[in-house]
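Record pair follows.
FIRST:
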Amino acid sequence: MVGGFVMAQAGAGFIGGMIVGLLGGHGVLVAKRLCRLLPQQFEAVRDILILPLLGLLFLGGMVFLLMEPVAVLNQGMVRWLSGLDLGHRVLLGALLGGLMAVDMGGPVNKAAYTFGIVAIETGNYLPQAAVMAGGMVPPLALGIATLLFAARFNETERHSGNACLLKGASFITEGAMPYAAADPWRVIPSCVLGASAAGALSMAFGCELLVPHGGVFVIPLVAHWPQYILAILTGALLAACLVGILKKRQSG
C-alpha cells in the first residue's frame, strides 16, 4: 500500500502499482526465509513487526530506484497511445483481442487484460473495449457453435453450450477452456481469429470502455455501444463458423 501510494505520487501510475505489488510480495517471502534463522522467542513478533518492517525497508529502497524510470515509461505509453492513428489502433485492437483468446484466462490473456487496465488509468479507454470484446468472443463463439453445428460436438459439450453463452456474455473467457482443451488445434486458432476481428472492429468504431469488467452489463456505458455489439457478434460468429468448418463430426 505504501509503495503504491509513493508510485502514484511519482506519476508511475498503474504500472508502478503492479511492480511494487510484485516486489512487495517477493520481498516479504525472502524476509520470511531469512527469519527462519531467528531464535524461537522471536516468533511472536515476527509476523506483526519484523516481516512488515523488513518488507517496507526493502520496498522503500526499490521504489526509490524505480519510481523515476517507471514514471517515464508510464508517460511514454500515454503519449504513444494518444498518438496512434486509425490504422495502428486497429492493429493494436486486433493484437489485444487475439491475445485474449490465446490461452483463455491464462498468462497471455491476463497480460492483454492488464494492458487495457493500464490504458484506462492513463485516460485512454479504447484498448480496454477491444480487450473485453476479444475476451467475450471465445465462449460466445463456442456457445453459438453448439447451436449451429451441433453434430460437431458430443452430448456433454452440447449441453454446456448455454452456460458457455452466459459466461461469454459476462466476459468470463475461461468458459471456452473445456472446448479448447478437447480440440486445441481447431478451437484456439478459430477463437483467436474471431477475437482479433472483434478487437479490430472495436478500435475501428472508436468504442471506449471506462470500466475494467462487466460484459453485457456495462455495454450501455460503452461509447458507440451499437457498433460495439456488432463487433462482438461479428467476431463470435466468425469464430463459431470456423469451429464448425474445422471440427469433425462427433459420433456421440
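SECOND:
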Amino acid sequence: MARPATGQVVCDTRRVSPVFALRFRAYGRREYVTLGGTADGWTQERAEAELQNVLADVRRGIWRAPHPEPAPVAPVDPSFHEFASQWFEANEGAWRPKTRVDYGWQLTNHLLPFFRGHRLSQITIAEVDRYRSAKVREGALSATSINKTITRLAQILEVAVEYEMIDRNPAKGKRRRVKASKPAPVWLDRAQHIAALLDAAGEVDREARADRKVPRRAILATLVFAGLRIGELCDLCWRDVDLSGGRITVRESKTDAGVRQIDLLPVLRDELLALKASAGRTAAGELVFATMAGGRQNPSNIRNRVLASAVKRANERLEDAREVPLPERLTPHKLRHTFASLLVALGVDPGSVMDQLGHTDPTFTLRVYRHGMRRDDASKLAMRDLVGLSDWAAMGSSGAPGASTALSATGLGQQKAPR
C-alpha cells in the first residue's frame, strides 16, 4: 500500500532574504521544490498553503515535477562567408557539374568579395542595392549575369530565413535586379539560311586538313534538325541513333523532361547515314561526333571552330549572292530554337514541339508557335522541301522515311547526302 503524501515547508534563513521550499514524497520518491524568497512575496503561511495544494495534487495523481526553463539561446549571426560556404558544401553533391561550377564562380568572384565581412544581419536591402550598383559600375558583367548572382544571394539568404537567423530575405524581389532589356530572339527562320549554313559547313569540311577533320555539316544538321543541347550532342552515342526506326534517344539531360525521343527528319537521317558510312568508330558505345582520338568533343570547339567558321563562310556566300546575311549572335542554342521554329513551320502541334525539345515550360514554345503561324505558304513549303518532307506522309511514321535531302528550292546549291 502506497504511503500517504506527506511533506513540510523548509525556510532557508542563511540568505539575506529567506527562501521557502517544499520537501515531500510523491510517487515513492523524495521531492524538493524551491518556491521563492520573501522578496518574491513568499511567506510561511503562503508556503504552507502551497504545500497542501501540492500534496492534494499528489494524492489525485496529477502533480508533475516542475521543469526548469531552458536557458535562452544566444542568437546566431554568422558571417555571410561562413554561412554561404556551409550552404555550398551541403548542397554541391546534388548539383550537376556545370551548376556546381557556375554557383562556385558566382560566389568566389562576386558575392564573397563584396559580402565577405558582413554578418547575415548586416545584409540589408540597402546593401544588396549597393552590391548591384557596384557591379554595374564595374562593367564586367551583363545585366543578366548580375541578376544571376543576386538570385544566388537570395537563394542562400532564404535558407537563413528558414533557420530564423534573419527575419526577411533582403535579396528577394524584382526591385533588387538590374533592368535588362531582352534581346530580340535569334534563330534561323528561313530555309535559305539553314541551307546556306549547312552548305558552308560542307565546304569547310572538304577543305579541312586531314588532322583537323570534324564532321561540321553533320554536327550543325543535328543541332538544327534535332534540337539537341550542345551537351546532349557531345554525349550522343550510336546506340542512341536508330536510323531504321527514325528516332534519336536522349538518355541524359539537364532536366527530367530532357530525357526524350526525337523523330528523325529525312534530311537528318541522310546526314547521319552518310556520317556512319564514313566513320571509323560506329559501335553502339562510340560517340557519334567523337574527336579524331575517339574522345568527347569540347563544346567550345563546336561554338568557335564548327559554327563560327560555317557562319563566316555562309555570310560570304550570301553577300556574293546579295542575299540577307545570317542573324548575328547565332549560337548552338539558337540552332535549337531553329528546330522549334522549323517544327512549327511543318505544322507540328505545340505539345509535340515541347516533347521534342524536352521543355516543361510552354512559354518559349508558344512564342515560337505564334511567330511561325505568321509564315506564308511559300516559306512553309520551302521548309518542307528542305527537310525532305514534301513527298513523305508525316513525321513519326513507323517506316523509314523515303525522301532524300532536297535543297534545290533554296537556290543555294544542291548537296544530297548519300543514302
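COMMENT: Residues 91 and 124 are 25 Å apart (CA to CA).
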